[in-house]
Automatic annotation (TrEMBL):
This is DNA-directed RNA polymerase. One of its GO terms (biological process) is transcription by RNA polymerase II. Belongs to the archaeal Rpo11/eukaryotic RPB11/RPC19 RNA polymerase subunit family. One of its GO terms (cellular component) is RNA polymerase II, core complex. It is found in: Nucleus. Keywords: DNA-directed RNA polymerase, Nucleus, Transcription. Gene3D superfamilies: RNA polymerase, RBP11-like subunit (3.30.1360.10). Residues 31-101 form the DNA-directed RNA polymerase RBP11-like dimerisation domain. GO terms for molecular function: DNA binding; DNA-directed RNA polymerase activity; protein dimerization activity. SUPFAM superfamilies: RBP11-like subunits of RNA polymerase.
Amino acid sequence: MNAPDRFELFLLQDGEKKIVETVVNGMSNCSDFTIKKEDHTIGNLLSERLKQAPNVMMAGYKVAHPNVPELFIRVQTDGTVTPREALVNALKQLVAAYGQLGREFQKELALRQYADQGENGDGSGAQGGTY
């Protein structure tokens, strides 16, 4: 079979960089970023977050081929920040947002488990009713 081993889709090889920046010569304040071992999931999240930034004029992504775990993102800014700074800011915002989502999920899960224990009265945590 021609398909790569599954671990090659998400593990970096020795010496392989996660993100490589290439400045686009024909456009001002524009760079292409190649992100290894990623796909549409992070590409869509990142490009949409970049588009929300006031200093980003254009952001878009593509995945060249489904069997090649590589993501290409192009970012153009208005010049007040570099494309690299815009990308780093967007990544930091996403990490913060999903960290908060994870904390809220864990809190709600703990409250649900506590409520389920209270309904059963025996502390076993087993589901007592139908939903």
